[in-house]
Protein backbone atom coordinates (compact mmCIF):
# COMPACT_ATOMS: atom_id res chain seq x y z
CA UNK A 1 0.00 0.00 0.00
CA UNK A 2 2.65 2.49 1.00
CA UNK A 3 4.79 1.64 -2.02
CA UNK A 4 1.89 2.34 -4.38
CA UNK A 5 1.25 5.80 -2.95
CA UNK A 6 4.96 6.61 -3.13
CA UNK A 7 5.04 5.62 -6.80
CA UNK A 8 1.94 7.69 -7.46
CA UNK A 9 3.44 10.70 -5.66
CA UNK A 10 6.69 10.33 -7.62
CA UNK A 11 4.79 10.15 -10.89
CA UNK A 12 2.73 13.23 -10.02
CA UNK A 13 5.77 15.23 -8.95
CA UNK A 14 7.64 14.19 -12.10
CA UNK A 15 4.68 15.27 -14.23
CA UNK A 16 4.48 18.61 -12.43
CA UNK A 17 8.23 19.14 -12.89
CA UNK A 18 7.99 18.38 -16.62
CA UNK A 19 5.07 20.78 -17.03
CA UNK A 20 6.92 23.52 -15.13
CA UNK A 21 10.04 23.04 -17.24
CA UNK A 22 7.95 23.15 -20.42
CA UNK A 23 6.25 26.35 -19.28
CA UNK A 24 9.61 27.93 -18.48
CA UNK A 25 10.83 26.98 -21.95
CA UNK A 26 7.73 28.54 -23.52
CA UNK A 27 8.29 31.67 -21.44
CA UNK A 28 11.90 31.76 -22.63
CA UNK A 29 10.77 31.46 -26.26
CA UNK A 30 8.25 34.27 -25.72
CA UNK A 31 10.95 36.48 -24.23
CA UNK A 32 13.30 35.71 -27.13
CA UNK A 33 10.53 36.53 -29.60
CA UNK A 34 9.81 39.80 -27.78
CA UNK A 35 13.45 40.97 -27.74
CA UNK A 36 13.41 42.52 -31.23
CA UNK A 37 10.17 44.32 -30.46
CA UNK A 38 11.46 45.55 -27.11
CA UNK A 39 14.68 46.83 -28.66
CA UNK A 40 12.67 48.53 -31.39
CA UNK A 41 10.44 50.04 -28.71
CA UNK A 42 13.48 51.31 -26.81
CA UNK A 43 14.98 52.75 -30.01
CA UNK A 44 11.78 54.56 -30.91
CA UNK A 45 11.20 55.87 -27.38
CA UNK A 46 11.30 59.49 -28.47
CA UNK A 47 9.59 59.00 -31.82
CA UNK A 48 6.07 60.35 -32.48
CA UNK A 49 4.26 57.24 -31.29
CA UNK A 50 3.66 53.52 -31.38
CA UNK A 51 1.47 52.15 -34.14
CA UNK A 52 -1.56 49.95 -33.73
CA UNK A 53 0.26 47.00 -35.30
CA UNK A 54 3.17 47.17 -32.85
CA UNK A 55 0.87 47.68 -29.89
CA UNK A 56 -1.12 44.58 -30.90
CA UNK A 57 2.05 42.50 -30.79
CA UNK A 58 3.06 43.81 -27.38
CA UNK A 59 -0.48 43.45 -26.06
CA UNK A 60 -0.69 39.82 -27.21
CA UNK A 61 2.42 38.78 -25.30
CA UNK A 62 1.44 40.76 -22.20
CA UNK A 63 -2.04 39.18 -22.24
CA UNK A 64 -0.71 35.65 -22.71
CA UNK A 65 1.85 35.95 -19.92
CA UNK A 66 -0.61 37.45 -17.44
CA UNK A 67 -3.38 34.96 -18.18
CA UNK A 68 -0.96 32.04 -17.86
CA UNK A 69 -0.02 33.42 -14.45
CA UNK A 70 -3.70 33.77 -13.55
CA UNK A 71 -4.31 30.17 -14.64
CA UNK A 72 -1.39 28.90 -12.58
CA UNK A 73 -2.51 30.66 -9.44
CA UNK A 74 -6.15 29.65 -9.85
CA UNK A 75 -5.17 26.13 -8.76
CA UNK A 76 -8.00 23.61 -8.87
CA UNK A 77 -10.25 25.89 -10.87
CA UNK A 78 -7.99 25.77 -13.94
CA UNK A 79 -10.31 23.61 -16.06
CA UNK A 80 -13.51 25.01 -14.58
CA UNK A 81 -12.41 28.57 -15.28
CA UNK A 82 -11.49 28.00 -18.93
CA UNK A 83 -14.83 29.25 -20.27
CA UNK A 84 -14.21 32.53 -18.46
CA UNK A 85 -10.52 32.82 -19.33
CA UNK A 86 -10.94 32.61 -23.11
CA UNK A 87 -13.34 35.59 -23.42
CA UNK A 88 -11.34 37.32 -20.70
CA UNK A 89 -8.20 36.89 -22.79
CA UNK A 90 -9.78 38.57 -25.81
CA UNK A 91 -11.20 41.44 -23.76
CA UNK A 92 -7.88 41.89 -21.97
CA UNK A 93 -6.02 41.77 -25.30
CA UNK A 94 -8.26 44.42 -26.90
CA UNK A 95 -8.06 46.64 -23.82
CA UNK A 96 -4.26 46.38 -23.65
CA UNK A 97 -4.00 46.88 -27.40
CA UNK A 98 -6.00 50.09 -27.41
CA UNK A 99 -4.41 51.46 -24.24
CA UNK A 100 -0.86 50.79 -25.46
CA UNK A 101 -1.64 52.39 -28.81
CA UNK A 102 -3.22 55.38 -27.04
CA UNK A 103 -0.53 55.93 -24.40
CA UNK A 104 2.51 55.38 -26.61
TrEMBL record:
Tree of life domain: Bacteria
Transmembrane segments: 16-35, 55-72, 84-103
The keyword Transmembrane helix is assigned to this record: yes
Keywords: Membrane, Transmembrane, Transmembrane helix
Name of protein: Uncharacterized protein
Source organism: Candidatus Thiodiazotropha lotti
Amino acid sequence: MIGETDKKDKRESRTIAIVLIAMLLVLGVILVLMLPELTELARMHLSPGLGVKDSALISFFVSVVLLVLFALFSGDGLIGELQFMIPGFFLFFVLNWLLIAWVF
